[in-house]
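Re: Re: ligand-bound prediction request (bumping)

Still looking for help on this. To restate: I need the protein modeled with flavin-adenine dinucleotide bound, output as structure tokens. Inputs repeated here so nobody has to scroll up.
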Amino acid sequence: MLAARSKHICGQLQALFGHTQKKQPRETGPKDTPFTVAIVGAGIGGLTLAIGLLKENVPFVLYEAAAKYSIIGAGVGIGPNAVRAMTMIDPKLRDMYYETSSGNLTPGKENVMMDALYAGEGFSTPAPFGAKSYQRTSAHRRDLLNHLTSMIPRDRVRFSKRVVNVRQLSNSVIIHFEDGETVEHTAVIGADGVKGPIRRFVLEKAFPDEVAPTFTGRYTYRFTVPIKEAQKILGTLADDAKCFMGRGVNIMAYPISKGKEYNVVAVVCTEKPWTHEKWTHQVSKEKMLADFKGKVDERLIRLLDWAEPVQWSLHHHLSTPIYYNRRVCLLGDSAHATTPHQASGAGQGIEDALIMSHILGKVKSPHQLTVAFEIFDSIRRPRAQKVVETSFECGHIYSLAHPDFGDDFVRIAAHLNRRFLWIWEHDLEADVKKADLMFEMLTARI
Ligand SMILES: Cc1cc2nc3c(=O)[nH]c(=O)nc-3n(C[C@H](O)[C@H](O)[C@H](O)COP(=O)(O)OP(=O)(O)OC[C@H]3O[C@@H](n4cnc5c(N)ncnc54)[C@H](O)[C@@H]3O)c2cc1C
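Reply:
Sorry for the wait, this slipped through. Here it is.
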């Protein structure tokens, strides 16, 4: 009877979503045995997952290398897809996000993602792009992290725990920390960011060439300006999100902190490899400004005067052939680090957290954990990797280097009005239903 049911579900699944591939041998084991999950990394991905697991009553411990919650960068734009994911994880999460997020300041521009305009001398007439289904919201990372951490009991988090290695046993995973301690969990989720060590463990044997992140040929200067100062320089252009596009450079800027600050991400394209040991590199102010002189209007040079002259390299994971290795799975940037051009990296981590917490909420015993990760991989990897690919391509559009668009702003804006719909309008309810169906099917077989 079980076999017949599985065949039936399989048929349904194939009709709905196409073929699902069996990737790894299934484990067998006892039923209804308690299990615990380790989350490695307390960034937006790991924290959102923790909130999801709390909702689903899945026992977990969150391990973070830093001594306390830490914030890198300032602004983060959250697309409507990620806001929906927040709502599905816990409506309180969305409500808290809305309490601190900001949109465009000009009434009537609620659905505009950014105005595209030429960064060079004199600028060009701003060409808005967005969609009815899009609502502009951005927050200061500090505020977002404060909200996320306020929802997680302190006793679920262990700070100053830098993971150096993980080792799988037949029914558990041993985590080794830098301070010499080891702990045992039934499964591990690596939400440890683009440089985190868990990715090596997942991919090293089968895909050694895919472990290291790739330099994208771009670095950024990231900073905030009090909005009043930005308005003194840019006038009303500083009221709303802007994408200043220049040859080999592009500057994305938008209000955050309830309209009190203007967040700026200034991207520079380079042909040279990133050779610095660290991913941040201090330069002189003159060198920073030289990256933009002659390419952008003087007003943007004055805006850049507010920046700390620190270059942040942009690395990404353009290719990740699989997100899991038995009881160890990647989530967030460790799986799919992306460039910032589509403002979607954190949003994809939030979608990951939704699907992962939902599936883990269904797991009744440890032997179902690899199945859960297989389902997560099957649902999340195609979409998240497509975001990485298309974001990289979007960077070419923003730096006026895309062969199809060049510097034709009318065509660029028309294209950008359509470009993000598949990200923003994605049906997360369907993903959850697919996860349910796959779980029923794959656990019925074992
Ligand atoms: C300039 C820029 C602008 C961006 N703008 C946007 C935007 O507007 N919208 C958007 O959606 N996305 C944006 N992104 C992407 C977004 O910032 C990331 O996708 C997101 O923050 C990644 O979150 P994460 O939790 O996966 O990883 P991280 O934030 O990197 O967190 C990883 C955590 O793991 C910890 N860790 C690492 N190694 C270990 C270890 N060995 N042991 C224990 N802990 C460890 C770290 O200390 C850290 O706390 C932008 C990115 C950049 C670079």
